[in-house]
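Field reference: sequence -> structure
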Amino acid sequence: MNKVLLVDDDVDLTAMLSQYLAREGFDVHTVNDGEAGVAQALSGNYSLVVMDIMMPRLSGIEALRRIRATSRVPILMLTARGDNIDRIVGLDMGADDYVPKPCTPGELVARIRAILRRVDMTDAAAPIPNARMLQVGELVLWPGNRKAMWQGQPLELTGTEFSLLDVLVRHAGQLVSKQDISQQAYGKPLARFDRRIDVHISSIRQKLGTRSDGQSWIQSVRGLGYQLLED
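Structure field:
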């Protein structure tokens, strides 16, 4: 049973969502402030964290920053409907996805399951010896346990970042449309005006750094898609 941490200061909402998630087969633990949310998220006991952005004592954005400093546990942010700034900041800091509030319990469950399908938290240790790997130059991915190495060093990626990079590696040297990236990484078509892919790609670019010629390892073609350069 997947254990989910729900962090939100709205006690009535957390109670309602907890009951629904429990009926859907999740083991749910709730806390009602950001400080407690960080402590629980870093305990290593959860498969996924659902966290509101607007909370007292410690905001969801700051809680996300503290968690991402040491942990890659998947995080789904709850944001105010229409607040694009919080969504972009959250994704840029390593959130795996977001759901606008108010949300239906059914939508939340669907997003949680989609993330858990992409991220296998049971194999979060070192790469499995002799496991199938993908390699493009100095970039190596182990899809089986979702680990990555870049220039001989571990590459820390969120679950969503790994899924996106996996797609680009499999099509290295080729232009991949954002629609194809969404289908292969998320298993669903790209919604109109959805910038999640752009934000996550920007984060991956920062982690890879630049080539000797100053260009990014991931090239973009406006309106078309992205391409991972092979050398």
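Note: The two ends are 43 Å apart (CA to CA).
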